Amino acid sequence: MEKSKTLLEKYQIPINHLDFAYVDKCQNAREMEKIVMILRSGEEGYFPDLTRCAEEKLKQLKPDSKLFRIEEQIRSSNVLDKQELKPIYDWTNDIKNKDSALNELKEESAELATDLPPVRKPCKIEIDKEESETQNAGQVPKPNAKPQLKSTNEERIKSTDYSKWDKYDPDEEILRMDLEEERSKEQAKIKLRKTETTTTKEEHIKCEKGAEEQRLQAQLKKLSQIEREQYAEKYRLRGNEYFKAKEYDNAIEEYTLAIVYDPAQAARAYNNRAVSYLKKKNYLAAIDDCEACLRLEPDNVKALLRLADANYGQGRRRESYGFYQRVLALEPNNISAKSAGRIASTVWRLAPAHATRMIIEELQSEKAAADNKPKTQAQPKPQPKQVQSEKPPKDYDLAELVKPNRVIKSKIACAAEALGGTLKTRNPVASAQKQQLQQMMQEVSTAQAELRLPQSNKSGNNNNKLLIQEIQ
Amino acid sequence: MDKPQLIEHLHESVNYTVYDTKWIPLSAKFVVLGCKPNSHGIMDIYELNEQKLEKVKTVEKKAAFKCGTFGASSLRNRHMAIGDFEGRLQVLDLEHPELAVYNVKAHTGIINCIDAIGGTQLECGAPEIVTGSRDGAIKVWDIRQGQAPVVDISPPSQMGDGINRSNLRRDCWAVAFGNTYNEEERIIAAGYDNGDLKLFDLRAMAVRWEATIKNGICGLEFDRRDIPMNKLAVTTLEGGLLVYDMRTQHPTKGFSCVEERNAGRSVGSNGVISGPKATVWTVRHVPQNRDIFLTGGGTGSIRLWQYEYPDRRVIEDADGNKEGVAGKLQMISAVTLSSQPVHSYDWHPDKLGLAVAGAFDQSVRVLITTKLNTL
């Protein structure tokens, strides 16, 4: 009886936790797993509803719990639709054609074999030798432990040998152990570096790739269409894998090879390379690839969408909008085109966001000259300028100007709004405007400090005076 | 159901023990290697038709066949390299299998495992075949070379007393090529019956790394052979499944890995996987998606796994050394295929989701996995 604990005891869960109310409010996934295991075991009785309830709760708390790993009996293919099996039948017929075509090519194979890389020079790797080497070098924990064992065996001091214990210096021993560890680490590092330096040699080989490219072209000519398709597909899939792993540079390389091998059917490779370029924010290259893809498949919706995205990224909004429209013409229900197209179109009709931003920059750098510059596009901007030029003559404003920056900033914004009335508070620009105003105010106050010092003195208190002097 | 589903398309019972199943590249045919009750080797070639399998050819030879591969053959001449129970390696032209293209007595014991590379990969070095055997040796073969291996990785010869050292020779259970991304680089990963995992660098001709896992290694495979090492999946007795991140090698800690101890666990009550542990015999990555792989287990189950990369694959430790970070494993799907271990499995290289599996219940199955492209 005693020998086997029940799960309840093993997990130390009180019996009253096996309850709907507790299960409902429990937030601990680990505990929930235990409760489910207890309930499933049936040791405490059979409660189908509670078990189901607990399982549902666990699903909420920890959807990937191992308790949900189930295995079913395999089902036969007649559960599948005819629709799902059809691609496989089609593929079977297709591959049989390729197969027989390949068999016809077989005769030539003897000649082809000549340009294989040379045979490796025969050699041996001896496992045993390597092991003895690692013992000296101390590589993995295992060898690390060995020398230590040895030394302790030799120098082991008997517990009764007091004279020796007197001589024993623990600090020294610790130091020695540390040094040993360090040395082994260094040696491991050197070993690793050795392998690394040899890999740099391959970089040199890579440099000679230009010459190799010609060889590749020569090799391409030897391959039959089937083989080229096959290789191109392989490279494209490898590109996809790199893309998934977010290694876009490698992906682009693989797609390029896929295109080289089978330019006639490279629509998908072009399309995928375009996305990779998009991810790299290389919009011009992406546009090129999309266009190449569209030349092969004029109605490729994905390519059109990407082309639109790339154009948008490059700042060609009008073109981008056009492409979104074309997508919608092909696929009226394409959601991403709809939303993106709407954004593109609205942005186009309003004053372009980035145009105003550019003006802000101008103002910052050369505020005086900028006064004349602002064009009709940036209507909201000139207003503060006018406010600024109006203000100085007014005495009452100046007193405020001399106050610390923080206060002034808000006041001026309010004043500008009151005066101009047209100053729209547009969200994306608002913060920039604030900063802008703040800076302008500083400029203005310095400029005015020279002119109106007496007045400001009159109205301002000591603090203000100080401020003005600082600015000067 | 948006999840991928494993479905049995066709089932063929045979009258011999199946040891390996392999698709012939760019065709609808596959090869079944096995051992007849009279211990003769048998090779059947089946062709996939819409609703049935058709046996195209049968070849019988004296020694039982253990394993085979098409890795070193080009698309034009699809020759199969086969290892048998007597340690012989032969390369057969499937059109004329009577006379081997290449035939060598490779090992003194049974050839447990075989892998090959360089046939279809361009600019990736010479086509080579690697064999691992019960005699403890791993040998690399180039069929242009003649009767000697190009690389011989043998344990020390048993000289001396031979009494205490008799069990020194480990049984090599699994080999795999990897890291073959240019003409020089090439790495062999090997797993032994005592759990030793070794990585041999064929460029430097040295042991690159070794580790010991708790249980004997039954299967291992790089996620891709022809790219710089990315991941290595290892399966063991007692249900272990380890996936190493092979991008970064730490000077002392080596490669980091994620371990799934219950990958081979059998089914308990209500289909929940909670039973006793069982061997994971084989691991095979999907040729079209390197982050998905399938394991075949001793309980006759096959399980589909997905590897998720961590946010950062490399971190620096306190000493400034780079250390790899392993990701996470997720089980996508699991089905019971047979009452006996499923020990051989081969995805079709050209068709996503199509596969052939061999089990010890003397049968071969063609499987379809749906919705793999959604992952």
UniProtKB/TrEMBL annotation, chain A:
Keywords: Cytoplasm, Repeat, TPR repeat
CC annotations in GO: cytosol; mitochondrion
SUPFAM superfamilies registered for this protein in UniProt: TPR-like
UniProt-annotated stretches for the region Disordered: 129-163, 366-395, 451-472
One GO-annotated biological process of the protein: protein targeting to mitochondrion
TPR repeats: 232-265, 267-300, 301-334
Keyword Chloroplast in record: no
Compositional bias annotation for Low complexity: 375-390, 456-472
Biased composition (Basic and acidic residues): 152-163
Listed InterPro entries: CiliaryAsmbly_MitoImport, TPR-like_helical_dom_sf, TPR_rpt
One GO molecular-function entry: heat shock protein binding
Subcellular location: Cytoplasm
PANTHER family the record matches: RNA (RNA) POLYMERASE II ASSOCIATED PROTEIN HOMOLOG (PTHR45984), SPAG1 AXONEMAL DYNEIN ASSEMBLY FACTOR (PTHR45984:SF1)
Name this polypeptide is given: Uncharacterized protein
Native organism: Drosophila virilis
TrEMBL record, chain B:
PROSITE patterns attached to this UniProt entry: WD_REPEATS_1, WD_REPEATS_2
Keywords associated with the record: Repeat, WD repeat
SUPFAM superfamilies from the UniProt entry: WD40 repeat-like
Keyword Repeat found: yes
Keyword hit for Protein transport: no
WD repeats: 129-151
Gene3D superfamilies, alphabetized: YVTN repeat-like/Quinoprotein amine dehydrogenase
InterPro entries the record matches: WD40/YVTN_repeat-like_dom_sf, WD40_repeat_CS, WD40_repeat_dom_sf, WD40_rpt
Name of the protein: Uncharacterized protein
Protein's gene: Dvir\GJ11402
